Amino acid sequence: MVKRPAKSILPLILAAAVIGALLLWLKVPQTAPIQVVTEPSPVPSLVQTAQAADGKISLELNQKQGAETTTWSLTAAQPGAAAKRIWSEALPHDTTVSIPFNAVSPDNKFLFLKQAGPDKNRYLALTTSGEPLSQDSPTIEFSGLFESKFPDYKITAVTGWGGINLIVFNTDKIDGGTGPSFWFDLSGRSFIRLSNRFD
Amino acid sequence: MPAKRTGLTLLLLALALGGIITFRLTKKPVCANSLSCEESLTLRIENDQVGIFNGREVIPPKIDLAAAEPAYKILGESDATGEKHIFVDLSTQTLTAYQGDTLFLKTLVSTGKWNKTPTGEFTIWTKFRATKMSGGSGNDYYYLPNVPYTMFFSGSGAPAASGFALHGTYWHNNFGHPMSHGCVNLRTVDAEKLFYWIDGTEKITIHGQAPG
Question: Considering only Cβ atoms within 10 Å of each terminal Cβ, which end of chain B, N or C, has fewer?
Answer without folding.
Answer: N
